């Protein structure tokens, strides 16, 4: 019997009034079609435009949508942890509120949910982005692969995490490095995973806020803590599935 697909979806956004409706409007029908049950946490991370109001409009039309308004910016990681602490399903994922990913890729991720402990998507059209962004992404992936040996195709795309295990690790950063820290920590436990290709929507020139100087410092701190295995709490490794590791994507 095929396990039911139940997923907690987190969509954070900061001043994305021009894109948040497209994001939610793409995710919601896919979740209705491809998942057995779901909940959506919309995180308004201190927006000063109409982002929060648009989120409230969607929530008013669907009881499965919960909106959290932050008075001040707290970071993507903080919003994700808020949803993680309240998630009622066994799996959780984060989808950026800036309509970064094409709906076809989100559909692939939803379909793969449950195929392994982790569903790790990878962006298959990063070369379409600016040369600077593409170089940064490829360099970061190469460094992480060399340091940790997992040889993933991507470390900072969309991921479906197991809530049970994610709640047992301590992630020390609230910003850009949160997902990298969480993913590598779970891989260090030996959980199984599949990789699924997704595609990015066309990037608006100059729209990226990703890798600034403070972000580089944050990433260095994240990598150092991972090398020291600081994020790993006292986890009962006997509970990790014996078939852990990479398995073929479905």
Automatic annotation (TrEMBL):
Residue ranges of every copy of the Glycosyltransferase 2-like domain listed in the record: 8-139
One Pfam family of this chain: Glycos_transf_2
InterPro entries, per the entry: Glyco_trans_2-like (IPR001173), Glycosyltransferase_2 (IPR050256), Nucleotide-diphossugar_trans (IPR029044)
Keyword check for Transferase: yes
GO molecular function list: glycosyltransferase activity
Required co-factors: Mg(2+)
Keywords recorded for this protein, A-Z: Glycosyltransferase, Magnesium, Transferase
Presence of the UniProt keyword Magnesium in the record: yes
PANTHER family named in the record: GLUCOSYL-3-PHOSPHOGLYCERATE SYNTHASE, UNDECAPRENYL-PHOSPHATE 4-DEOXY-4-FORMAMIDO-L-ARABINOSE TRANSFERASE-RELATED
Membership in a protein family: Belongs to the glycosyltransferase 2 family.
UniProt name for this protein: Glycosyltransferase family 2 protein
Organism: Bradyrhizobium frederickii
